[in-house]
Amino acid sequence: MTAGRILARAHDKGEFSGAAWAYGTSAGPVGRDTLGTLSRDGAPVGDDTLWDLASVTKPIVGLAVMALVESGELTLDDTVESWLPDYAGTDKAGITVHELLTHTSRIPGRQPLYRHCPTRRDLLDTLVRLPLRERPGVEYSSQGFMILGMIAESAAGVPLDRLVRERVTAPLGLDETRFLLPEHDRARAAATEDCPWRGRIVQGTVHDENAEVLGGVAGHAGMFGTLDDLSKLGQALCRGGDGVVAPHTLAVMTGTRTGGRALAWKGHEPRLGSGGDLLTPSAYGHDGFTGTSLWVDPELDFYAVLLTNRVHPSRDSNGIARIRRTFHNAAVTRTLS
Question: Could you tell me which residue ranges the Beta-lactamase-related domain spans (predicted)?
Answer without folding.
Answer: 8-318
